């Protein structure tokens, strides 16, 4: 572990704030949240139901839920860049679901930034609740070079 670059940290915190887990676990329990059902559509060549979740800060995430198995297929959200005030659209596509410890888990996750693929992950092994020590997340400070 080591300290992150401030730009990388800001991007990570934004993605976490709009993550599927964050939206479903935190946003839905907050006061002022609104759900907008937009009906059936097609996403990633699959029949889905489109739902937008808006929080009290006027931030929204659109979820595309499979009509076959009710699992998330796609998630999109937009945000404004503080420097140029341009609107950016980010999204994730979830595929190749398998059951892991009783939880249906996507093993292929593709991330998009303004319509272009920016990241793709293929998971080969997943496990939950491993009890990782907090010391694993403490940043290490590089030692200073010895003076001669």
Radius of gyration from CA coordinates: 19 Å
**What's the order of the H and E elements?**
HHEEEEEEE
Kindly report how far apart the N and C termini lie: 29 Å
Helix content: 10-25%
Q: Strand arrangement, largest sheet? A: 1-2-3-4-5-6-7
Strand portion, in percent?
Answer: over 45%
Shape: globular
Counting DSSP E segments of at least 2 residues, the number of strands comes to 7
Class computed from helices, strands and strand pairing:
mainly beta
The largest pleated sheet is described as: 7 strands, antiparallel
What is the average per-residue confidence, as pLDDT, rounded to a whole number?
A: 92
**How many helices?**
2
Low-confidence parts lasting 5 or more residues at pLDDT below 50?
A: none
Structure notes:
The protein has 148 residues and is mostly beta strands. The protein is 12% helix and 45% strand. The protein has two helices and seven strands; from the N terminus they run H-H-E-E-E-E-E-E-E. It has helices at residues 6-17, 20-25; strands spanning 34-43, 46-54, 60-66, 72-80, 87-100, 103-113, 116-122. Strands 1-2-3-4-5-6-7 form a seven-stranded antiparallel beta sheet, with no helix packed on it. A hairpin with a 5-residue loop joins strand 3 (60-66) and strand 4 (72-80). The chain is globular and about 55 Å long. 11% of the residues are buried.
């Amino acid at each position: 572990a080591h300290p992150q670059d401030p730009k990388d940290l800001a991007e990570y915190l934004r993605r976490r704030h709009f993550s599927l887990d964050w939206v479903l676990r935190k946003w839905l329990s907050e006061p002022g949240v609104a759900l907008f059902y937009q009906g059936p559509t097609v996403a990633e060549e699959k029949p889905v139901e489109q739902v937008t979740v808006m929080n009290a800060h006027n931030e929204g995430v659109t979820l595309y839920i499979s009509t076959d198995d009710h699992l998330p297929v796609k998630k999109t959200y937009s945000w404004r860049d503080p420097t140029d005030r341009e609107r950016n659209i980010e999204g994730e596509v979830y595929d190749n679901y398998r059951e892991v410890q009783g939880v249906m888990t996507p093993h292929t996750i593709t991330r998009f930034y303004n319509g272009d693929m920016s990241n793709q992950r293929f998971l080969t092994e997943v496990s939950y609740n491993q009890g990782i020590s907090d010391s694993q997340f403490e940043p290490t400070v590089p030692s200073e070079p010895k003076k001669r």
